[in-house]
Amino acid sequence: MRALPLVLTAVLLGSLTGCGQDASPKPAAATGYHGVEPLKTVNRPSYVLRDTAGKAFDFRAETKGRPTFVYFGYTNCPDECPTAMADIAAALRKTTPEVRAAARVVFVTTDPKRDTAPVLRRWLDQFSTEFVGLLGTQAQLDAAQRASGIEPGRAEGPVPTIPGRPDQHVHKEGTAPHKHFGPLGYSVSHSAVIFAYNAADRLPVVYPGGVTPSDIAADLPVLARP
Question: For residues 28 and 183, what is the distance between their CA atoms, to the nearest angstrom?
């Protein structure tokens, strides 16, 4: 793991993590949320990328007024990324149909060289066909991460694969079941938190590793309030 500054919370979220490394659970926010409350509540950011259908996706315009979960990661992340997406999917299943219909889930790749639109779409469909996958040039993705208050992810060292099976890795305990659809054995650093924007277009809470689907589900009705 390499420590890099984050605009949102220099203390609570002061690093990027390489896949295969833990993000420690944090105490519940003082407001009653079940995640971590940023030191400063910021507005929903503005950036334009493209979705897996090749269409321009203006993040602020497309998600305005809706509870929105955002995760920056990559499809060949061995542990944190698939678990985060599975946790969000499980949380949505625990809430009411009305809240579930209002919510949006956006996954932004930090690995544009390997995460093509078909790869990203196939990977996300393991969790939900409704999840939005966003891609772009390295410069566009870097700008989106900075707009969200984090430093851009970068390629890092190798991740061990199973001997004789370069397309498989050993899953850590607690990792959600998932499949990969590209080459393994490498890592890309990324912010290992789920960003949760509310219907008022603010960021009142983020969820690090260790937060459960039930925790996220409990917060969803609050996030959905106008």
Answer: 37
In the chain, what are the domains? 42-223 (3.40.30.10)
Q: Give the amino acid at 11.
A: V
End-to-end Cα distance, the chain:
38
Burial (CB < 10 A; 0-12, 13-18, 19+), residue 72, is buried
- DSSP-based three-state secondary structure for 101: helix
pLDDT(27) > 90: no
Q: Give the max Cα distance, the chain.
A: 53
Give the pLDDT confidence score for residue 24 in this predicted structure. Answer: 39
Q: What is the pTM of this model?
A: 0.80
The contacts of residue 220 (CB under 8 Å, 6+ apart) are 67, 91, 92, 95, 99, 103
Element (H, E) at 91: helix 80-94
